[in-house]
Amino acid sequence: MHNQITIEELKTKTDVIYVDVRTPQEYTHAHIPGAVSLPVLNDAEHKEVSIIYTKADKDEARAMGVQYASARLPALFTKIQELTLSHDYVVMYCWRGGYRSHVLFGLLHSLSVPVYKLIGGYKEYRKFVNRSWAIALDKKPFISLYGDTGTGKTELLHALKNREASVIDLEGLAGHRGSLLGGIGLPQQPSQKMFESELQDALFSLPEGPVFIEGESRKIGDLFLPDLVYQTLKTSQKIHITSPVSQRIQRLKEEYAVYPPEEIHAAIQKLIPFIGNQAVLSLHDALKEGRVDEAIHALLINYYDPQYRHSKKEYAAELTHINTETAIEELLHVSRQLFTGAFAPGGPAPD
Q1: What is the pLDDT of residue 350?
Q2: Which of 336, 310, 348, 330 is nearest to 148 (CA)?
Q3: What mean pLDDT is predicted for residues 124-150?
Q4: Given strand 4-5, what is the order of strands in its sheet?
Q5: Which pLDDT does position 168 carry in this prediction?
Q6: Alpha-carbon distance 308 to 144, whole Å?
Q7: Which DSSP state fits 302?
């Protein structure tokens, strides 16, 4: 059948949109970034059909699947037809390019709807992700920002992105700030597969040249950096960011003050194994009594700063983040010194 296409071919195309016909649960766990969810079967239906398929009669299972899907076909047809009007490549996939995508693809193809089917489905896409880290990272050396909590590293990354520098926000992709308290106020982290897919997709979207990224440990919340990404981070050009304690306290206060007090207290309780019961009780009391600056300062000196001091690194440069615009200019200047010619972001290399 025509219009079947590989993920490698699609990576050379523009204006591609993926249609995930797997169940809502499968889609939520992980999908190709940017994919639209148009399930052929819902979770309960897919479970029932799968049981019959594996334990009873395959033909009966297929007939049941068609019966369940038939009620959705008009809506699926309309939505996919709309997508073909606004995208050059509308690509359907299921788990491994099997029955769910094949049946719908065959029907649409017979009606001359210009859709494509991803060969091997999501399973083949995951194989592509696992074998493509070296390609995604090629000629994109990292400039990693390290520094104590509250020095504004994420703020600097966002400002660099606004200046059209290449940036990867690992904490943003992971949905976690990277510390024991880093999940406060944030939704559940994505799955490991979804994190890897979003990260690789972000890397592929960047041009050749240096990439600003925050220095992280191997683990961000419950997620792990892929091996090659972590090794690239470890061998990157590192810049140490500092900031006055008063500014660090203010940044953290502004960031966390919007969250419910009970969520903050619950997170602080997890610090007992690290700073002791008495120190945690003192933090609870300070927050309840409105001594927020005092509590944050205690957190910095008793927990965050000692954690950071355990890691010794060699830095290519150091800068103090007081004014963001000034810090950005310094970062761009340092990057031009580190990478000249075509690899110099923010303008040509100095003479």
Answers
A1: 38
A2: 310
A3: 97
A4: 4-5, 116-118, 89-93, 16-20, 36-37
A5: 98
A6: 15
A7: I
The residue among 301, 264, 258 whose CA lies nearest residue 279 is: 301
Q: How buried is 165 (Cβ within 10 angstroms: 0-12 exposed, 13-18 middle, 19+ buried)?
A: buried
Q: For strand 116-118 and strand 211-214, is the pairing parallel, antiparallel, or unpaired?
A: unpaired
| Count of Cβ atoms closer than 10 Å to residue 314 Cβ | 6
Domain residue spans of the chain: 4-131, 134-343
Contact by Cβ (8 Å): 164, 210? no
pLDDT given at position 310:
65
- Band of residue 63 on the pLDDT scale cut at 50, 70, 90: confident
Cα–Cα distance for residue pair 232/168, rounded to 1 Å: 13
Cα-based distances in Å from 151 to 249, 259, 334:
9, 20, 18
pLDDT: is 223 or 109 the higher one?
A: 223
Percentage of residues in the chain with pLDDT exceeding 70? 96
Residue 190 CB partners (closer than 8 Å, separation 6+)? 30, 173, 174, 175, 198, 223
The rounded distance, in Å, linking the Cα atoms of 47 and 270 is 38
Q: Rounded CA gap, 126 and 97, in Å?
A: 13
Fold of 4-131: Oxidized Rhodanese; domain 1 (3.40.250)
End-to-end CA distance of the chain: 58
**Tell me: the pLDDT tens digits for 103-135?**
899 889 889 999 999 999 999 999 999 999 999
Threshold 0.85, pTM exceeds: yes
Decide yes or no: CATH 3.40.50 for domain 134-343: yes
Q: Where are the alpha helices (DSSP H) in the chain?
A: 7-10, 24-29, 43-55, 58-70, 73-86, 99-110, 121-131, 133-137, 153-162, 170-174, 192-205, 227-234, 245-256, 261-269, 272-275, 277-288, 292-299, 305-309, 324-338
Average pLDDT of the residues in 164-181:
92
Of 41-50, 75-84, 334-343, where does mean pLDDT reach its minimum?
334-343
pLDDT of residue 308: 77
Cα 211 to chain centroid, rounded: 16
